[in-house]
Structures are given as C-alpha cells and as structure tokens.
Amino acid sequence: MNKIFTNSVMKLLVPFILLFLMLFDGQLSNMLRHVTDNTIYFNSHLFLIGLIISSLYFDKRYVMIVSLVLGAIFDWHYYNIIGINIVVLPLTVLFIYVVFKYVKPTIFTLLMSLVVFITVMDGTAYLLQVIFKLTNPAFQKFITNNIGPTLIMNIAICILFSYPLNKLIEKRSND
C-alpha cells in the first residue's frame, strides 16, 4: 500500500518538478548566453534528464502525456507558437523508451544516451525552426556554437550529479 501511495504522489509531483526544471533550464541557458555575449549557446537540459529519469519509473503513456503538455507550455512560453516542442518532446520520450528497452540503464548508458537524446532533440528542434524560418539555417554554426557547448555542459552536469542519478537508477533496478 505504501508503494502505491508513493507512486501516486510522485505522479502528481513529477509534472511540477519537470515544469520547474524546464523553467530553470531557460533561466540558466539565458544567463550563460549573456556571459558569452550571445556567441556561444550553452543550453541546459536538466528537463531532459528529468524526462529520462521519469521514463525509468513511469509507464510510457503517462510520460508521453506529461511531455506533450509540457511541450505545449514550453512552446507557448519560449516561442509564442505551439508546434515545435509539442512534437519534439514526445518523440524524444518515445526514443528514450525504445533505447532503454534494449539498453540496461546505468550511469554510463545514461550519459551516452543523453548525448544522443540532446543531439536528436536539439537537432530536430533546429530543423523545425529552419523549416518555419524561425532561425538562421547556418548548420555549421549550429554545431559549433550550440550543440558542442550544450553537450559539454550537460555531460558535466550529468557527471556532477552522477552519484544521486546512479542511486535513482539502482533503486529503479531493485524495484
């Protein structure tokens, strides 16, 4: 009974935790943009790390619905149009479930998959922004000024939080 109660409470808290991480990601990313005078873009992906951890604990339908709703909020809050992240986030969540169906979650596989998920998520968002003429289509600049620094920063964050993340992964494996 206690496990059912805990799971129900977490299902209520997870969307708010992910919303907080999404908003914090935006603030952290903007702060780092100002530090580099908008020449290098370090995009924080704590929100994505939260989605990955959520996918390890909750069923696909629940995480898909949460990612769809938060994708709409993300689009409305950051772009003032609904469409990019309402598509990209659920597709990324589906990809997360496919990967972890075949790969045992460990801190190492989480780190390696994070690189893939960030690249796919940011690359897809960039492609959609180019299609809708919301950004400059300079792909080389996107790779060197955006994806590279973003991956380095998020790998560092993941390594920094590797101990608590590993405990969450181990707890999930023991359940």
From TrEMBL:
Transmembrane segments: 12-28, 40-58, 78-100, 107-127, 147-165
Keyword Cytoplasm attributed: no
Topology in the lipid bilayer: Multi-pass membrane protein
Main location: membrane
Entry's localization field: Cell membrane
Record-linked Pfam families: MreD
Keywords per UniProt: Cell membrane, Cell shape, Membrane, Transmembrane, Transmembrane helix
InterPro entries in UniProt: Cell_shape_determining_MreD
Family (UniProt): Belongs to the MreD family.
NCBIfam families the record matches: shape_MreD
Name recorded for this polypeptide: Rod shape-determining protein MreD
Species in which this protein is naturally found: Vagococcus proximus
